[in-house]
Structure of Pyrroline-5-carboxylate reductase:
Amino acid sequence: MIKEKTLRIGFIGCGKMAQALAKGFIASGITRSENIIGSSPRIDSMFIEEFSAIGCSTTHENAQVVEQADVIIVATKPPLVPKVLTEINPVVNSDNLIVSIAMGIPLINLEQMLPRKTRVIRVMPNTPVLVRSGASVFSCGTSTRSEDATLTKRLFTAVGLCEEVPEVLIDACTGLSGSGPAYMYIAMEALADGGVKMGIPRDLAYKLSAQTLIGAAKMVLETGRHPGALKDDVCSPAGSTIQAVYFLEKSGFRSSLMEAVQAATLKSKQTGRKE
Ligand SMILES: NC(=O)C1=CN([C@@H]2O[C@H](COP(=O)(O)OP(=O)(O)OC[C@H]3O[C@@H](n4cnc5c(N)ncnc54)[C@H](OP(=O)(O)O)[C@@H]3O)[C@@H](O)[C@H]2O)C=CC1
Ligand SMILES: O=C(O)[C@@H]1CCC=N1
């Protein structure tokens, strides 16, 4: 069993998601910055600079990440995954746990691009891992051991919620929680715009809209009550909220969100068929 704090984590690709995870892991204490390494081939990569600024090692050689880490997180854009897995294939061995966070790429494809019996896990995290409030799901490949699932759960729970799911659900989870922060930022911006339209200063409007989303989310998670019942508590008879709710229903607010999740899910599934 690998001990916390000495866990060596490598990132192939050290862009936005890799940095969010690295910062979240360091803040959680599950490992230290000196035990994290990230790669990007470009000599003038801005991401490489940002990654070293948080105290992590960097390299332009993907193979070096595999040689220096216990857990290797594949964090390049999906179309680059076949290229980077083919590149690291000769140095991957049975001590490595390969964790792919790439949107849409199924475990079977990942396993086919790596040596036989490589331990592979597919994770779909989201950017709030940066502030340890992420929502991640994962599925295990055919050669993983039970301790690989335990380690993955421990790592991603250190930066938020983490659930193991059947792989068939990962594209849908990508559409809901992987992409979901973007939908909520749009909602927050629009709420704040509405507030500004009604005379609230911009700074206060952003604070109020963000805190309102945090508060509503905590109410669902901490009370265990149905979101519909919590909504009913806010809607006084003949009050202001029900006027707004009527307007949202008429404008297709619910179906817009449902279709957004569906569109992102289908895009993720399509990506898997292409790679
Ligand atoms: N952003 C998000 O919210 C989420 C993203 N994901 C997944 O995470 C992955 C990364 O996304 P994101 O962080 O947003 O993307 P970024 O573009 O921010 O990061 C990609 C990184 O890959 C590097 N890179 C490019 N070519 C190579 C190569 N040949 N070998 C190694 N590294 C390379 C880039 O380096 P450089 O540009 O410096 O050349 C960059 O550091 C994607 O597969 C995405 O589906 C999953 C969940 C959420
Ligand atoms: O938009 C994307 O492709 C990635 C996957 C989930 C969130 N961002």
In short: Residues 12-18, 39-42, 45, 47, 62, 75-78, 80, 83-84, 101-103, 124-127, 178 surround NDP (ligand 1) (CB under 6 Å).
